[in-house]
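Input for the complex:
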Amino acid sequence: MNEILGIVIAAFISWFNFVLIDTWMGLPEAPGVKGADVIGRSVKARGGDLAGGFFQGNIVCSPDASAGTLLASIACYAIGTPEGGLIAAVLVYFGNRLCADPGYAGTTGALSITIIIFLTSFIGFKPEYFIVGMVLAILTIQGLYHPWASRLLGKIAHKMGRHTKLT
Amino acid sequence: MIIHANVFSYLIALAAAVILSLILRLPLLPEKPMRQSWTISAVFPTAVLAVGFYAMVYKLGYQGYIVALITGIITALFSKFILEKVVPVPESEESNE
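Predicted:
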């Protein structure tokens, strides 16, 4: 498979993997720690959405599905599929618990991307495509413009019934 | 597709961990809403830890059904007796419960 095309497709897959799992696990509903609350309210003050801001704050403050996706991709590249992904899930779980988070989003994200990497390997995808793809995916959420990204995340949270009740 | 023999090792580790943790009276699933629950249960995180630990042991060169069984048993004991001490629930969560 063409490398550039593979990375672009992997970026889309990674984006949906972590955004859907994190939203489903309730990241936009409430800040897990004080830092996530500060980030969420700062994003809202700059014209963003509060639920999207909490989502962005939560993925900064603890390893959620975004970190799970990236770490599992790296581990599959370094150790092999699926062992690397399974080891990454354990490490993400401990990382989550250390960051005052029960750990569902991170481990689910790591396990789901391991399955995706395993399945897509049959059509020529390599784990390194998902490493670069995930870096690009997280760039669209955290690196370009927070208010726009938070409004998009807020809309997704609203559709999935996970929008915050806080004001 | 040929199922690799290693798949059975993972299943043995998983089954051993889940069955022993149920015997040790861990709940099968966390209470609802699960995404906010800190309860250690047989499925999460014990089963996830069991396959992860077996993957570590496997990559270190120790393989086979017996190793998988022992890994599952140790994981269940770890989840029941040690996990809460290694990574405790944050105090703010404890006060909310």
